[in-house]
Design goal:
- By secondary structure, this protein is an alpha+beta fold.
- Helices cover 13% and strands 29% of the residues.
- It contains 4 helices and 8 strands.
- Strands 1, 2, 3, 4, 5, 6, 7 and 8 form an 8-stranded antiparallel sheet that branches.
- The radius of gyration is 15 Å and the shape is globular.
- The chain binds a DNA duplex through strand 3, strand 4, strand 5 and helix 4.
DNA sequence: GTTATGATCTCCT
DNA sequence: GGAGATCATAACG
């Protein structure tokens, strides 16, 4: 059921980002399984992408996870508050990653609701990378974990979308990246309630 | 050692 | 529509 390791070794992070739409993402934290299918992603295209932490081949203790072989998770803290989940792709030495921005919840919705302190289930329970990580119980101690593990993994259950159902637009929150901020590296399923709203 | 800032979200007006 | 939260990271001295 888990997507094979070879899937993540593709050199084309943009097409992997697109392919991940409709795939099922799960976590098992403290024995609690939560997950759903991915409806929004963004591609971070290695050393030539100004929006990427690894731009210019910048190797630091934080970014070393991105330089490892694909098929693992890159998780980091942003704005001092939010954990972000990325899927590392391509071969060792190529710091490509896909930011998972939103899922449509399927499994363990009550658990996600409790983690988010929400009285009612609303679409924004898993819309946006920070919310998504919180709902799934993802923290930095999962940084570098294999996607073949039993704590964090992605499955293919046969769901997929056509090009007409997928929108490609510029990424969110990367205005500092100059020209690269214009690249259409954000992909989402049109008309899905769980896609994050652009914050402005 | 110090400082500026961010792949964001929530609450307030 | 806008500001505050809150801290690891990276660049600089």
């Amino acid at each position: 059921m888990k997507i094979p390791h070879s899937f993540y070794l593709s050199a084309d992070v943009v097409s992997v980002s697109k392919s991940l739409l409709g795939k099922y993402l799960f976590t098992c934290i403290n024995g609690l399984i939560t997950g759903g299918y991915i409806v929004e992603t963004e591609a971070y295209n290695g050393v030539i992408d100004r929006a990427s932490h690894a731009f210019g081949n910048r190797k630091t203790s934080r970014t070393q996870t991105m330089f490892m072989e694909g098929g693992i998770a890159y998780i980091y803290l942003c704005y001092g508050i939010h954990e972000m989940l990325n899927v590392v792709t391509s071969v060792e030495g190529q710091p490509h990653a896909v930011l998972i921005r939103a899922i449509e919840p399927v499994t363990g919705i009550d658990i996600m609701q409790a983690r988010r302190n929400m009285e009612r289930v609303q679409p924004n329970i898993t819309a946006g990378p920070g919310s998504l990580a919180k709902a799934l119980g993802i923290t930095r101690n999962l940084n570098g974990i294999s996607l073949q593990s039993d704590a964090l993994w992605i499955e293919d259950r046969g769901l997929s979308f056509t090009d007409e159902q997928i929108a490609a637009v510029p990424r969110i929150g990367v205005a500092y990246a100059g020209q690269d901020a214009l690249l259409k590296y954000r992909f989402y399923v049109k008309d899905n309630r769980y896609v994050s709203k652009p914050n402005k």
